[in-house]
User: What shape does this take?
Amino acid sequence: MERMRKDELASAFWRIVQIEELLSDRRRLWSRRIDDTNLDVVFTRSGLWIVLDWGSGASAAFRAAFSPGALTVKKCSVEGESLLIDADTRIGRQVCEIGVSRVDGVFTFRTVVFPRSYLTFEAWSRDIVPLAPSPQADGVLHSSAEDHRAGQLHASVAGGGSFLYVQELSSLAAFCGATRATLAQNVGGDWPDIGFVPPRGRKALSPSDGPTVLSHAHVAWTEAAAMTPGELAEEQLALLAAIYLETGRANARGDVHAPDVWYGGSSGAAGQ
Assistant: This one.
């Protein structure tokens, strides 16, 4: 059997830790019921998560922020269906903006890190964790390698529903420029270890690089269970259309928090 590299072992370790924390030690910051689906924003000792629960016991957790050590939520501002969360983590301050569209069945998160030290990301696990009452969450990864290169991931959780995850690869341009990294194989994986992981570049991300986007993703979901290849293709297109509609509306509304919140100035106007 092929031996795992040290970074693969570390990634597998953190995945196990995060599953255990999500199942037994998570704290809720915000919750909404949308039709028959529950959407919770929670934090654990090492992460900030959006948990999509189809009400049947099957769910999927999407990691908005990760800390290989303690994570402390310093502030959570809520305005309607939008949240702005400021967290202190081992790797530095992380600020996460989360928006939810009930109409489209879409949520979006964007996370900026203020590096505290030199960061290389070699031990990070992928950012989607399927969950179920049983020890193993069954499901299917429907999307292809070509989809993954475009930042898209389409999957379904047994007993739950389906989702389409889209990572905004263009938002990671500053990260890739600073670390000399590429994004060729950073969305994808093998069930149940799926999602996005920051790439390892030729350079570390350093404090001098300043605030840097680590993740900017959209997730659309459905309770329907597509079965045939034709139904799956239609489902993926419908979910992608929902994401495009919501991002278009968000851009038209100007749903971006003030720069002083993101870049370390006075935050008194946030969440008032």
Remarks:
- Confidence is low (pLDDT under 50) at residues 256-272.
- The two ends are 57 Å apart (CA to CA).
